[in-house]
Amino acid sequence: MSVMAMRMDQAVEALRAAGEPTRLRILALLRREELAVLEICRVLDQSQPRVSRHLKLLAEAGLVERFPDGAWVFYRLGLEGQARELVGELLARVDMDDPVLARDAGRLESVRAERAAEAGAYFARNAAAWDEIRSLYVSETDVEAAIRAAAGPGPYRRLVDLGTGSGRMLSLLGPHAQAAIGLDLSQQMLNIARSRVSEVGLEACELRHGDIFATRLPAQTADLVVVHQVLHYLGDPAAAVREAARLVADGGRLLIVDFAPHKHEFLREQHQHRRLGFADADIERWLKDAGLGRVKAAALPPADAAGLTVKIWTAQRGREARRNAA
Q1: What pLDDT is recorded for position 325?
Q2: Cα separations (Å) of 220 from 35, 50, 104, 109, 144?
C-alpha cells in the first residue's frame, strides 16, 4: 500500500507530528537505530519530560513504536505501513548534513562510544571468568546439548561464530566443521578463545578482531552461523541479525542463543546488558525479513524462578527452508 492511500486525516496527523524541529530530529536519530529515552535526551540535550511529550505525539501518529524493556523504555521507527513509508519519504528529502542533524549524529556517536567503552571495560574485567559468570544464570550442560541438537550433526563446510567471546561455541561445534571463524571486538576475549580452541585441538579455526554489524565476510558462504549470547549487548540487534543472515549459505542455518524477556535489572547495572531478553515475535520477524525461513524456537527454563530462560532460535536459507515452511 502506498503513502497516497492514507486517509487525509491520517496524513495530516502524521505530517503534523513530524513537522516540528525536535520531532524531526528524533525521527532522524531513530532511523539510525532504536534508542532508549535517556539516550535521546542526551543527544538532543533536552529534559526527559519534554522529550517524552514529543515521543508520545510521534507514537500516537504511528511514526514510532514504544517498547518497554525492564525499567527502560526504547523507541524505534514504526515497522511497516503507510506511516513508515511517509517517514522514509520525508527523511530522504532532508539534508543530513544540516548542522543541527550533523551535531545530533556526532552526539549519538559519543553515546555509542561510551556504550562500547563500558562494555569493553566489563569484558576486560571479566574475560578470564566469563564462563563462570555465565554459569550463574543457566545450566551449561543442558544448553550445550540443546545447541548441538539445534545446529544439527554436521559436518559443516564453514562455521562462523559472531561475538565468539571465550570461544565456547567454537570448541563445542568446531570439531564438526571443516573450517571455522570466530569474530569478536574484545582482544581480551579473543586471547581466551585462542587458548580454548588450541586446547581442544581445532587446527582449521581462525580468530579475528571484527564487528558483528560489518563482518566483511563473503555473503552466503557459511553452513552454520552462530550468534550466542550477544544480541542483548547490542544497540541494534536487528541489524546484527541481518548481517548474520547474510552469511548463511543456501541450505545453511543461523542459530541464535539468548534470553527470553525477563526483569533482572542487575544484569544491566552490573553486566552491561542493554536488552533484557527478546520476544519470539521480534526474533522471528528479523529472521524472516533477512530472507531466512523455517524459523523454530526452543526454550530452556531455569531450575528456579530466580533464573533466566534461555531461548534458541534457528532459521534456514534456501529451497529446503522454503519447502518446509510451505
Answers
A1: 37
A2: 30, 46, 35, 30, 26
- Enter the C-alpha cell of residue 94: 532532508
Q: pLDDT of 136-158, one tens digit each?
A: 576 788 899 999 999 998 899 99
**Residue 53: its H or E element:** helix 48-60
CA-nearest of 209, 210, 244, 212 to 316 is 244
Listed residue (6, 157, 148) closest to 78, CA to CA: 6
Task: Look over the chain and give the mean of its residue pLDDT values, rounded to a whole number.
Answer: 88
Nearest to 158 by CA among 139, 186, 177: 177
CATH number at residue 18: 1.10.10.10
How many Å apart are CA 290 and CA 317, to the nearest integer?
10
Q: Give yes or no: residues 178 and 278 share one domain.
A: yes
Domain of residue 287 covers 129-325
Q: Give the model's confidence band at 321: pLDDT under 50 very low, under 70 low, under 90 confident, else very high.
A: very low
Contact 163, 137 (CB under 8 A): no
**Per the structure, how many domains does the chain have?**
2
Residue 250 and residue 162 share a domain: yes
